[in-house]
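As a warm-up, study this chain.
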Amino acid sequence: MGFLDTTKRVHVIGAGGIGVSAVARLLRHEGKEVSGSDVARNETVDELIVSGIPVTVGHDAANLPDGADLVVYSGAVPPSNPERAAATERGVRQLSYFEFLGEFSKERWTIAVSGTNGKSTTTAMLGLMLERGGLDPTVIVGSKVRTFPGKNLRLGESKYFVVEACEHEANMLKLRPKMIVLTNIEEDHLDFYRDLAHISATFREYVHNLPPDGKLVLNADDHVSFSELAPAVPFTTYAMEHPAAYMVRDLSVGNGRQLFRIARTRDGKEEPLGGFELGVPGRFNVMNALAAATAALELGCPVDAVAETLREFTGIWRRFERVGERNGAVLVSDYGHHPTAIRGTLEAARSFFPDRRIVLVFQPHQHNRTRKLFDEFVASFDGADVVVLPEIFDVAGRESDEDAQVSSYDLAEATRRRDAGRGVTRQVHYGGVLIEALRFLETAIAPNDLVLLVGAGDVYTLAGKLRTSV
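Now compare it with the structure written out below.
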């Protein structure tokens, strides 16, 4: 870690964030003295404290330790933060989370997993494949993986670094990967990007930053990324429907498993790589698995290691995560906050739980996203039998006055109008604040239901209350 050779003491602001906390653990592993702070206490903060990293709750200039020579901060922490202001006054070097990853990525053989949907799951799958295949990677994922000792961090001794690369505010441009795994490109983060053309142009810049010996792993089923990206670097493709170098064949679903084959095409000849199985639902997860498998195989990972990883994969935190039951109803937590993700989650639920009534509890994340993708959100709810819409989770600093005018109440009304237009009768409920949504769910949930708690905000906290409020 050459860029940190002279660094001894690091302070991490926003340490409870899922990405920043991994950096804190990584720095401590590298022998640095690490402290942190966050605006509130959460499970991740508690885990850091238990691991020996002191974290202060609340932001104050006094939290910046004497002798600190580097500050790493979450992208949500503004320059006006008192600890950042103190660092500026003292002349302490400051790096955002993605700036830090960018510096770190220059010193490793970096594989960046990018795209609108599926980044966390694909990153986790790829990291686990390389681990089992003996490539011993360091991995940072924007979720938690049960078998990683650091949950969101796996520390490896090889040159390989697998990292989830977010496109918000073009953060992926700060990385210097040798391989990019691209899941898909859709409209999102429209508080930063003007439109889909702007998003595509930014991804083109990202891909063209690959070195001459780099490689792009590209989804041939995604029209936008496949048609828009014409890289001046080698690339390989994967797909379920269109011709590609790696393809899924004979997908079937039964007994809580997805079964399929993967075929690899070389010099115009298709080579069967064998049968694979996956214990998490959804065609999107098969595509995540195929993306990870393509990258792993291109890196020399044995086929058996790929197959064994997928067979044992049980998902990651808040990605179709089964979190308990309520009087026979199954509770599932999912991070989905984009219309495509919601639609895929509902399709996955129907494929694995065909005989259950599906209750979708969706908490929209960010007013701007809700307003700009409003119609897409309304259509994405079609696969649910009951729809409950708590109020939008507000994201500070990313909303305009115009954004603030949209409400989950508007989504509920529009969903009812859409149902009327397509001759569908079902319960659509405006949930209000979470406690109001909880009260509704306590009486509405039936024993055989599948309850999906979906969103990137705090809707997942309802699971514990539903488990205990019987």
